[in-house]
Amino acid sequence: ALYTDPSQLPKKKYDFIVVGSGAGGGVIGSRLSESPSANVLIIEAGLNVEGAVATEVPFLGPNLIGTPFDWNFTTTAQPGLGGRSIAYSRGFALGGSTSVNFMVYTRGSKDDYNRWAQVTGDWGWSWDALQPYFHKMEKLVASADNLSQAGKLCPEVHGKSGPLPVSLPGYSLVTDDLVIGATADLPHQFPFNEDMNSGNTIGIGWVQYTIGGGQRASSFTSYIQPALNRPNFDVLINTQVSKVYQTGTQKGLPIFRGVQFSQSANGPVFNLNATREVILSAGAVKTPQILLLSGIGSPSELKKHGIKTIVDNAHVGTNLQDHPLLSSAYTVNSTATFDAIGQNPALVGDLLNQWETSKTGEFVLGPANQLGWLRLPGNAEIFKTQHDPSAGSTSGHYELIFTDGFVSFAVPSPSTGNYFSLFTNVVSPSSRGSITLSSTSVFDSPNIDPGLLNSPFDIFTMREAIKAGKQFMTAKAFKGFILEPFGEFADAKTDAEIEAYARKFSTTVWHPTSSASMTSWSSTNGVLNPDLTVKCTVGLRVVDASAFPYVPAAHPQTAVYVLAERAADIIKGKHGY
Ligand SMILES: Cc1cc2nc3c(=O)[nH]c(=O)nc-3n(C[C@H](O)[C@H](O)[C@H](O)COP(=O)(O)OP(=O)(O)OC[C@H]3O[C@@H](n4cnc5c(N)ncnc54)[C@H](O)[C@@H]3O)c2cc1C
Asked: What is the interface pTM, i.e. ipTM, of the complex?
């Protein structure tokens, strides 16, 4: 059942306590509680989303940024962004970031997962070995407009009966034929990819979304909500875990089965012990913060805050990776773009009404109907001095996303006009950032440094992505539709100007990962073992995006879901459920 107050919890004992209900925690809580004899509790800091229409209407997803459903973090000053600090959104909600994200469903590439397998020495993380889990979680469903899927995805690649609905965009746009037509015009540089979830991501194609029946699917709607009536599954919201604590010692290693939590910085503090495991799924920002607050980290970092080191691990909070994102707009010869929705409040009411009555219309859409993943040429100048950080030939170096209207996270939308937005996104970054403590309170944000555009490779790739995007827009298919580049984008012509433009306006795709990453059993260069247990501890695991050794060249929710699906089986296996 769902609880809002720790004192209401019906049990004094849980086998598993899961911290966070996002892509990782939602799957773990739901899958572990499938075993009736496993008592499972999820503790979630954020708000209930039941009945919150903005979390249900796909088109309104971006409007959740900056609302009470957002942690509303801010990064440290980013040298790669000209010293700017930027807003850093994370879901403060039941369902975590899957309740506020943009629902793009991309698995990543064969090479992304095979690299995880190689780094961890556990072939269970390879693309082939994870296939049963992709199929277990997915349910390929019709789009809201029920159009044929033929030629837009490969059904055989997908699961048909899992809890998470996946569908194509449910409303056709004028720009659909233009983008797909441009891949036919320029097939060598911009090939069409019928299904970017087949293992080979390269090319441009139709976006798949975690949308079913025209409505957002999240770890809450797909995993937690259907399990809430199980007598062995409780979820406590509005409550932050402030640390995990040692409950004993086993073979010289500290056991961390204790969880401390409260509802406000000065509110009553509660303690609860798990009989089997504590699983941290608080996401790539908060999981390392909780580990550090628990005395698991670099002794010098912990000492600064007067925290006693229990496990000496200098890697906690390091290796943070993210994808820098830039939006550039063109004016277009059309009056039928999304811009009308932002510019005309009456239209919003009509579309919401249509969505509520029939789950059809523009509001069933995510932010783009097509996107693509592309590689720098093998002889690109940057490879003379920098090694290629991508996982391999099936992973992109950059992504292009196409939106039928003006969308930017750096500048306000113009009040008039019609636009087409081209997003460029560095998806195999070589920059690394960090999460460090700013105080000893979990109620304070940690220092978040995603290291955006902070390496020669990343700025080079962003620049080349912009140039490739401009090239794509010259395809015959766009003739008569695309008018001209808009705003400062129009003035960014030379390489130096494009780089300066990119540093001035880039933000993030909100894809932080790898801040408590897994490595092999024998490696001391990481935070987790390949089974996601925290190195040199007993009873403590991490199941969320912080566990990734590398960020996949993809929107990462799918990788978190699949990681958690396998993790649930690992945990069940270990405890004989
Ligand atoms: C605006 C936005 C758009 C995005 N768009 C996409 C997209 O289109 N496609 C895609 O694939 N990915 C997208 N992502 C990223 C994707 O949602 C995340 O990668 C994924 O949800 C990460 O899963 P997680 O379990 O690691 O963390 P989360 O889903 O963030 O879950 C962590 C949970 O832990 C809770 N928590 C944190 N600290 C505590 C604490 N101390 N005590 C208790 N609970 C705590 C949080 O409130 C949260 O509910 C987007 C993210 C954002 C923010």
From this structure: 1.00
